[in-house]
């Protein structure tokens, strides 16, 4: 069949890479794609939020399955539009994708259905938010309610920072309309993990465990980013924690959404905070994590296409997913200055040499091609992802690839996966 992947980041390159291996694929397209997806699929110059053009393309090319990568088209209702037109599509409908598009909706849903999470308040007025900050204490977490590309979360270490964050967001300076409402919540201690599962709205099939690294600098220092690297499996997700996450987080959330008339079909991502035996939910995403998708798909042994089709058809019963025993590590190579201002258009060297490393794939995230080369075109530029029999071996191999690639002011963390090794 003909398959269309929507998106242009590292996650979409990983999806294209994995889907391309399926014998069920006749022709593969990616809209708008990037230079990495262009090596495996035909890139189509349509923006992810141009829903009418995407629909016309899918109909014209007789697309048998559309796979939605990023959150924006989900929140705009692309899945609803495609389904109304009789097209098969993998992703959450607009009313279910609200679990990511609105932090306030997500927190209220968790509260209602007893999904463990941090104490919180939702505010549109600065003085009420400040009163809650004073009552809760420091450190405290301030989140823009709407979509902010993984950057709308500030962990304030003192009162001044907290007050500045809510004032900035609510006055519309920091994140525009995404910050016109803020969620203020207690700071949770522990170790984070990413827990992803496929669901048809009833059946839930977990993916392998993973851990993302949000802060820009080593040792989890500096501002939050969209993710500076990830690894799988995450040893912090023990069998007991896995069971708890499935029962108290995934099951309650999927059932809660269904009870609200918001049947969730797609991949559901829970950001968890694990402290001893305690599991609390930090947030939900309505799609594959980026960069978690990269190591997860490298570890997935099964053909992904039948799984995606089963979700789109609304029936995952009987589907099983096999995983490689190996570990996978993804190191994000970013532009200097990210997540603040950064330069685009630097020439990247060493991609060919890195590609020679065994069991390693360089996923493109923010790149563009020009005559005879690849240039930087985003904050997170590449996701260098490697397999190894153990996490330390996968780390060593990933950094072996990283060492071969360069451009001016390239920045990456040197400690991706260290938490797994320390465990």
TrEMBL record:
Coiled coil: none annotated. Its EC number is 6.3.4.13. InterPro entries: ATP-grasp, ATP_grasp_subdomain_1, PreATP-grasp_dom_sf, PRibGlycinamid_synth_ATP-grasp, PRibGlycinamide_synth, PRibGlycinamide_synth_C-dom, PRibGlycinamide_synth_C_sf, PRibGlycinamide_synth_CS. The keyword Transcription does not apply. Transmembrane segments: none annotated. Its cofactor is Mg(2+); Mn(2+). GO terms for molecular function: ATP binding; metal ion binding; phosphoribosylamine-glycine ligase activity. Residues 107-313 form the ATP-grasp domain. The keyword Zinc-finger does not apply. It comes from the Bacteria. Keywords: ATP-binding, Ligase, Manganese, Metal-binding, Nucleotide-binding, Purine biosynthesis. It holds the Pfam family GARS_A. Pathway: Purine metabolism; IMP biosynthesis via de novo pathway; N(1)-(5-phospho-D-ribosyl)glycinamide from 5-phospho-alpha-D-ribose 1-diphosphate: step 2/2. It catalyses: 5-phospho-beta-D-ribosylamine + glycine + ATP = N(1)-(5-phospho-beta-D-ribosyl)glycinamide + ADP + phosphate + H(+). One of its GO terms (biological process) is 'de novo' IMP biosynthetic process. Belongs to the GARS family. This is Phosphoribosylamine--glycine ligase. The gene is purD.
């Amino acid at each position: 069949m003909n398959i269309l992947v929507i998106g242009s980041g590292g996650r979409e390159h990983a999806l294209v890479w994995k889907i391309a291996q399926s014998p069920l694929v006749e022709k593969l397209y990616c809209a708008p794609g990037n230079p990495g997806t262009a090596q495996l699929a035909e890139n189509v110059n349509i923006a992810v939020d141009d829903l009418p053009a995407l629909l016309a393309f899918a109909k014209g090319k007789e697309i048998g399955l559309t796979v939605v990568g990023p959150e924006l088209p989900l929140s705009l209702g692309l899945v609803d539009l495609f389904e109304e037109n009789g097209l098969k599509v993998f992703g959450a409908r607009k009313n279910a994708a609200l679990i990511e598009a609105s932090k306030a909706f997500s927190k209220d849903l968790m509260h209602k259905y007893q999904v463990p999470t941090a104490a919180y308040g939702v505010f549109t007025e600065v003085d009420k938010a400040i009163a809650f900050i004073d009552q809760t204490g420091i450190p405290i977490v301030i989140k823009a309610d709407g979509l902010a590309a993984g950057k709308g979360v500030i962990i304030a270490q003192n009162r001044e920072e907290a007050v500045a964050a809510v004032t900035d967001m609510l006055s519309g300076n920091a994140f525009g309309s995404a910050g016109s409402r803020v969620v203020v919540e207690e700071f949770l201690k522990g170790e984070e993990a990413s827990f992803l599962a496929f669901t048809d709205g009833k059946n839930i099939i977990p993916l392998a465990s993973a851990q993302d690294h949000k802060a820009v600098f080593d040792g989890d220092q500096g501002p939050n980013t969209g993710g500076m690297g990830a690894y799988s499996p995450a040893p912090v997700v023990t069998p007991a924690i896995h069971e708890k996450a499935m029962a108290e987080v995934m099951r309650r959330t999927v059932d809660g959404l269904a009870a609200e008339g918001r049947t969730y079909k797609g991949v559901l991502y829970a950001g968890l905070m694990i402290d001893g035996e305690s599991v609390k939910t930090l947030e939900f995403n309505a799609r594959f994590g980026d960069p978690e998708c990269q190591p997860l798909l490298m570890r997935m042994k099964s053909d992904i296409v039948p799984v995606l089709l089963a979700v789109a058809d609304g029936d995952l019963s009987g589907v099983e997913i096999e995983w490689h025993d190996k570990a996978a590590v993804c190191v994000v190579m970013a532009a200097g200055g990210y997540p603040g201002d950064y330069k685009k258009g630097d020439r990247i060297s060493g991609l060919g040499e890195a590609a020679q490393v065994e069991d390693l794939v360089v996923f493109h995230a923010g790149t563009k091609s020009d005559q005879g080369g690849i240039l930087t075109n985003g904050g997170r530029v590449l996701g260098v992802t490697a397999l190894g029999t153990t996490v330390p071996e996968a780390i060593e191999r990933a950094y072996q690839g990283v060492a071969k690639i360069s451009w001016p002011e390239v920045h990456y963390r040197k400690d991706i996966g260290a938490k797994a090794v320390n465990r």
